[in-house]
Design brief:
This protein is of the alpha+beta class. The protein folds into two domains: about 40 residues, no CATH class; about 60 residues, IHF-like DNA-binding proteins (HU Protein, Chain A). The chain has three helices and five strands. The strands form two sheets. The chain has a three-stranded antiparallel β-sheet with strand order 1-2-5. Strands 3-4 form a two-stranded antiparallel ribbon. It is extended and about 55 Å long. The two termini are about 15 Å apart. The relative contact order is 0.12.
């Protein structure tokens, strides 16, 4: 199975090509965009939701502590403290494309 990986540089190159700007300028905009999203998701507020229309929703929400979790390798019981987790829910356009048969 071959996996195609796209980096921020690839996204910047495509944005620069589409908008007719330099790759460096596009990379600065994209870096700033991801920095703002990361800062929003890392806020101390327990529930954070970032909705990007026609793309999807990023959510950050707390989990409960698990006092009796198990390490599958050693079978040892461990305590997992409460923490925050992130989730991405794709929008209608992406979801409909992903549900098509291969």
């Amino acid at each position: 199975m071959i996996i195609k990986t796209f980096t921020k540089r690839d996204i910047a190159n495509e944005v620069a090509r589409r908008k007719g700007i330099s790759t460096r300028k596009a990379l600065k905009y994209i870096d700033e965009f991801f920095t703002v999203m990361r800062e929003y998701l890392c806020k101390d507020h327990p529930y954070v939701r970032i909705e990007v229309r026609n793309f999807g929703v990023f959510e950050s929400k707390p989990t409960k502590a698990k006092p009796r979790a198990r390490n599958p390798r050693t079978n040892e019981e461990i305590y997992v403290p409460a923490h925050k987790k992130t989730r991405f829910k794709p929008g209608k356009i992406i979801k409909s494309y992903l549900r098509r048969p291969i």
